[in-house]
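Before the break, one more example. Copy the sequence into your notebook; we will annotate it together after we see the structure.
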Amino acid sequence: MSQPERTAQPIATNLRRVVAASMAGTVVEWYEFFLYGTAATLVFSKVFFSATTSELNAIFLAFATYAVGFIARPLGGIVFGHFGDKFGRKKLLQLSLLLVGAATFLMGCLPTFAQIGYWAPGLLVLLRFIQGFAVGGEWGGAVLLVAEHSPIKERGFWASWPQAGVPAGNLLATVVLLVLTGTLSEASFLSWGWRVAFWLSAVVVVIGYYIRTKVTDAPIFVAAQQEAEKVKATSFSVVEVIKRYPRGVFTAMGLRFGENIMYYLVVTFSITYLKVQVGADTSSILWYLLVAHAVHFAVVPLVGRLSDTYGRRPVSFVGAVLGATWGFFAFPMMNSGNYVVVTAAVTIGLMIHALMYAPQPAIMAEMFPTRMRYSGVSLGYQVTSIVAGSLAPLIAVKLLDIYGSSVPIAIYLAIACLVTLVAVIFARETKGLDLKSLDIADAEDIARGGSKAFA
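Here is what the structure looks like once it is written out:
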């Protein structure tokens, strides 16, 4: 047996271990993050706000607290990106996991509006901020841990697995809520049952943390860290990333914009639409989402593989074009109230979303050198969420309240996808790029005095 064949298995085993570690934390953190999103409509609008508030306005206020997490995410991305580039991906990933777990567990302990008045939503906002801060630091570290370990020709596939952890976490949250709503009366669920879902986070955090202790940072990061010390390139600030790689940062934001809005319209606002506009019951809505999340989980790695075969740009381009059409046919499908048709509408939405979502870890990792990659991808990815995902449910609820129609919401999504389409057109194709080449170019520029800005 040749030497390459003898070494292939250990390398593959190590990569799978890294993927498992990244996904374990991602599943945990997005279980908790999206549990909040689902509960915002089903529970928080009733428990943490005054009973005199109208249904849509209470949901609007619940989504406003939901948006706080998105505002905190860029701050988390900046802070975790800075220290993750300096001290390593693994340490920061462990910290983010503990933070989000503690915040989510405490949410399950909060008194209601009837018990402590406006302190209830106030404390909810505080914990939501901590949760969002931690999740903001999670994504960049998780995907980079995999991307920097991956073979060049398969980076799109392997780096998409942490993305698949998002629907997996959402799937887990949906299953837990289905079990609770199916075994408890509505009064019991609103009284204490919903808290169980938040308390369960303690169990999954312990499991995720343990798995993450079993991996190390990629050799390319260790080498870049040593090189940075050698040449005294110790600035890892957001300012430097924007100054030296503005094209990468703003392209990442554009790629994220339509995708992020679409996701929260499909998985968060659709709950409100089906509940308020269509009149679907809670159990049915959760079953719709259960099927859609399962399909989404399966599709994301397949799309990642497509991005390795055909390129990052073509796959993202198709996703942006199809995403612009979804609202125009999906909401009428939901209006039918038919189980199969509604499930198809939500599932198709997440399949389209995967076309924009799965290639992102690879293409964003391929935009920045190793020494500032965590900062670069976190900035481009998380800042966008302030004006995209955080506002999407709020804008959609308000448009529905004002016009009583889904058409303005569909137009809103189409415009968002057009922004992403423009970003795809102006993006560089990075399939097959060796990450070391970015580090070499960056080191050469530093040796010349670091005056070049990489547009």
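Residues 1-10 have pLDDT under 50 and may be disordered. The chain has one domain: 10-447. Try to locate both features in your own notes.
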